[in-house]
């Protein structure tokens, strides 16, 4: 990490305590996540919960695929499961994933949001209500406006908001929608997002 980048991350994280990270992505998201998550150390201290837009009609192997590449434990989120630090969770297909005030997950089959279930907005908005200013939200590549409202809610609750640089995204629609709705704290390419996540841990 260069001294310049380290200074930028220090400014972003100054006075912040992060307890949890939520990430949203759609088209191109698996590739972006494979460039971010495997670099996280085994002792990464925060929960990381991910919503990727998935087809409803098939089982997800995301937890298995990423577990083979990550030092951290990886699980598919389930109803009533407690959110544990140091764990990566993926939303299951066909269900909206929410975080309750007691930091447990809940699943629902309410109507799709932006034609998606799971929806990024639902995860991010509920996580913002649960963790408030101790939450970091990251929005990556995608082809819809899902996640824009969720990122705005995180910002309104005092959390940290990071959007993938649209020029770096496979599909720029999702990052652009978030930037237009509410200016994020940082707009970064994927390698810098990974470095920022590592800096979050070092900042504690």
Keywords:
204 residues, alpha/beta, Rossmann fold, two-stranded antiparallel sheet, 7 helices, Sig_transdc_resp-reg_Me-estase, EC 3.1.1.61
Determine the number of helices (DSSP H or I, runs of at least 4 residues). Answer: 7
**Overall residue-averaged pLDDT value:** 92
Give the SSE string.
HEHEHEEEEHEHEHEH
What is the structural class? alpha/beta
Tell me, what is the CATH class? Alpha Beta
Largest sheet: 7 strands, parallel
Strand content: 15-25%
Domain CheB-type methylesterase: 14-204
Pfam families: CheB_methylest
Protein name: protein-glutamate methylesterase
Keywords: Chemotaxis, Hydrolase
Description:
With about 200 residues, this protein is α/β, with parallel strands linked by helices. It has a single domain, classed as Methylesterase CheB, C-terminal domain (Rossmann fold). The protein contains 7 helices and 9 strands. It has helices at about 5-15, 30-35, 60-65, 120-130, 150-155, 175-180, 190-200; strands at about 20-25, 45-50, 75, 90, 95-100, 105-110, 135-140, 160-165, 185-190. A 7-stranded parallel beta sheet has the order 3-4-2-1-7-8-9. The protein has a two-stranded antiparallel sheet with strand order 5-6. Helix 4 packs parallel to helix 5 (about 150-155). The mean pLDDT is about 90. Keywords: Chemotaxis, Hydrolase. Its EC number is 3.1.1.61. It catalyses: [protein]-L-glutamate 5-O-methyl ester + H2O = L-glutamyl-[protein] + methanol + H(+). It comes from Massilia rubra. This is protein-glutamate methylesterase.
């Amino acid at each position: 990490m260069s001294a310049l980048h380290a200074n930028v991350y220090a400014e972003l994280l100054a006075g912040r305590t992060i307890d949890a990270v939520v990430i949203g992505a759609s088209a191109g998201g698996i590739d972006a996540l494979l460039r971010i998550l495997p670099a996280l150390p085994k002792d990464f201290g925060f929960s990381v919960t991910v919503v990727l837009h998935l087809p409803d009609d098939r089982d997800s192997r995301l937890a298995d695929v990423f577990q083979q590449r990550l030092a951290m434990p990886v699980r598919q989120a389930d109803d009533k499961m407690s959110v544990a630090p140091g764990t990566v969770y993926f939303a299951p297909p066909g269900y909206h994933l929410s975080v309750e005030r007691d930091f447990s997950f809940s699943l629902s089959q309410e109507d799709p949001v932006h034609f998606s279930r799971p929806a990024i907005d639902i995860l991010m908005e509920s996580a913002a209500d649960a963790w408030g200013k101790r939450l970091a939200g990251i929005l990556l590549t995608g082809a819809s406006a899902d996640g824009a409202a969720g990122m705005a809610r995180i910002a309104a609750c005092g959390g940290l908001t990071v959007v993938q640089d649209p020029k770096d995204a496979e599909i720029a629609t999702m990052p652009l929608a978030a930037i237009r709705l509410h200016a994020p704290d940082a707009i970064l390419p994927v390698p810098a997002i990974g470095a920022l996540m590592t800096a979050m841990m070092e900042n504690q």
